Fold:
Amino acid sequence: MRNLAGQATKLSRTMHDIRYDSVNDEILVTNPFAQAIITFRGDADGNATPLRIIQGPKTQLGGVDRLDVDVVNNEILVPDGDRILVYPRAANGDVAPLRIIEGANTQLRSATTLSVDPVHNLLAVGLNKAGRAITMNADGTMSAQSADADGALMVFNRLDKGNVAPRTLVRGPKSGIVRITQMAVYSPRKFMIATQPGEITVMEPEEAFVGVWSLDDNGNVPPLYRIGVGPKTTMKKPRGVVLNPRNKEMIIADMRLNAVLTFSFPEIF
Structure:
């Protein structure tokens, strides 16, 4: 229908997250190379100029890779390694964060994705596997060294700032979490949905899945619902997830298939 591309868009080679704001009819995209958050009109097409760009030293943005937009409270939330940054939704230019969650008590480490629940004023955060160095081998394969703690899911109060401890933390063998790449929250059921693509160095990890947990889960907790890889689901390495409540569907982007898969999932709605 439309193709948004070109020099004027300020888009780059790598964009690991895109969010649609249905209230304001806007598209939000990250540009990690430019350390920027880019917003377009919902009907943008072709070599379109962004409506707004958050970028500059005051923003404190590092390698901004993923984000979420809170259309109820008009905020943009960004995970950035060992901290969470929050901006006004309509911010433009070199704008300082409204709030930052950061410090030893937060237990944030390799935070890569998040999703906000504006109904219960909660913020779900997904952690990557920490302490990992990736090297490219001569044969084109990748190797990981110095593996540390596996990934996790943690929940903060939406308005938390500073050196605060999370309300809950899901981690451990029962959870099956190695790393989390994208998340969604379904507020009416208080669910957090997360993609778990497995080890980054494995092309088709057998342990990859998309899991559903409660925002109240804490500790070494298995998912309430789970869609795993395999011949029935056809999934190989899920990376992105979004919900379609109107049709009771879960939509999953698979990085190995280069495909978008839609599942009927009435149980979670």
